Amino acid sequence: MLKGETDELAALVAQQRVVREATIDVNALEAKQPVTEQEIASYYEQNKNNFMTPEQFRVSYIKLDAATMQQPVSDADIQSYYDQHQDQFTQPQRTRYSIIQTKTEDEAKAVLDELNEGGDFAALAKEKSADIISARNGGDMGWLEDATIPDELKNAGLKEKGQLSGVIKSSVGFLIVRLDDIQPAKVKSLDEV
Hints:
The protein is of the alpha+beta class.
């Protein structure tokens, strides 16, 4: 998972929103505005452009200077650059968590009880998690760098692989967190770079 994707995922998990709810009786509204299927089809045909989404694409590029590329670089130059810029070749510690998010504390406690009785985390996440993104992956949030780990996960105090948190109150409801793996920080070797 790329850093931008982990940032996006972490922001999604930690987001807060103000929501207003209104209950609308759709049947009563529909009764006040009778429309035939033919009128709907006609409106759609006349306004097709309003229902089109623009084509989207993502472009990545590297700017290369042909003159610079023709200069020979010695192994000693490469080693010197590597030695002087090792901070650029350091992969920070990464942690992998799985979560199950529920709307209520009682739901979270029930899920935690099932897990403590030997329930399968991934299956319960797919079945019961309110977080649709991680639920699709069995609760897996992927690899997160320290800067992108939400505070709720950091404060869970998980240290051992496979360790479960208790029920954690969060801005999005209630969480049960499992620490799946930890990759310590490491400097990539010159061969890897």
